[in-house]
Amino acid sequence: AKAAGRNRYYSFDETLSRKAAMTRDIERDLSAALDEGAIVMWYQPILSDCGTQLTTLEALVRWNHPRHGFIPPMDLIAVSALAGLSGELLRHILRQVAQMIGVLRARGLHDIRIAMNVSPRDMTQMPVDTLVLDELAALDLPPEMLELEITEEIAIDPAAVRGKLSRLADAGIRIAIDDFGTGYSSLSALQTLKVDRVKIDKSFVRDLSASPVHQALIDAIMRVSQPFGFDVVAEGVETQADLDILQKLGCTIVQGYHLAKPMPQDDALAWIERHHQ
Ligand code: C2E
Ligand code: CA
Ligand code: CA
Ligand code: CA
Known about the structure:
Blueprint (H helix, E strand, L loop, with lengths): L1 H7 L1 H27 L2 E10 L4 E13 L3 E3 L1 H10 L3 H21 L6 E5 L2 H6 L2 H11 L7 E6 L7 H12 L3 E7 L6 H5 L5 E4 L1 H4 L6 H17 L2 E4 L5 H9 L4 E2 L8 E2 H11 L2
Parallel strand pairs: 2-4, 4-5, 5-6, 6-7, 7-8, 8-9
Antiparallel strand pairs: 1-2, 1-10, 2-3
Helix pairs in contact: 2-3, 4-6, 6-7
The structure holds ligand C2E and calcium ion (CA) (3 copies).
The site of one calcium ion (CA) has 5 residues, from strand 6.
């Protein structure tokens, strides 16, 4: 039975072993890629006033592997954890984000923030507060120019992150809850975590015009967020129709391909020149 099974699933096995080989390749090349600067940040605008006012750029990690091509960020994060390089990757991303903040400040663009994603694993296991505050202090950068995006999973165990988040928030760093609506956290749990904004997950935003249920959900998120004073951001805005509905629902802070795609740093700076006064 085992032999028959092996035959029947031969191509499946092959795919698995190819995946394993690819993971090994990526693991092996990751450390060099970090040293050589092959892992870079792209930046996607987040706009307020229904997409007219640039407030934030979200930093999104990009690695174009010489043989395997573009590695999805989630795979990169997972492989770096397997390779024991999570800390290296986090520091690398933080350095690049800090460098971008320095560039913005040098151009007098103090009112634009950079939002950096931190994985739940790093948030709970790494001294993220100290790493972030030390990096900003070393370069004499204002904490107000940095925002951290963490997924709502962390609200499941608030005790593990409360101290770090409150230290970061007290220093002036903004906290955003990413992928909101996909987990089980309540807004009141988030309130105890010094959260400034929630980002409605893109799965609820895409095709909004065709989904009364998602419209009702966003409406509800808007209503319950208000008393807490959270900003609400809609990510994944892909069409004008979606943008129009968000405006009707009172959700005016938006991000998505319809407004601007993630761009390499130089393109993002050129984009700012054209769109920001
Ligand atoms: P996320 O934080 O929810 O980021 C939004 C993702 O949606 C990004 O994918 C972005 O390119 C994509 N996106 C933006 N606008 C649209 C749109 O209109 N439609 C659609 N369909 N997608 C849109 P990306 O860059 O592939 O990142 C995927 C995820 O990987 C991120 O989801 C985040 O969880 C993680 N990630 C990315 N960069 C980093 C990083 O530097 N550190 C950590 N820890 N995680 C990261
Ligand atoms: Ca994010
Ligand atoms: Ca998100
Ligand atoms: Ca996500």
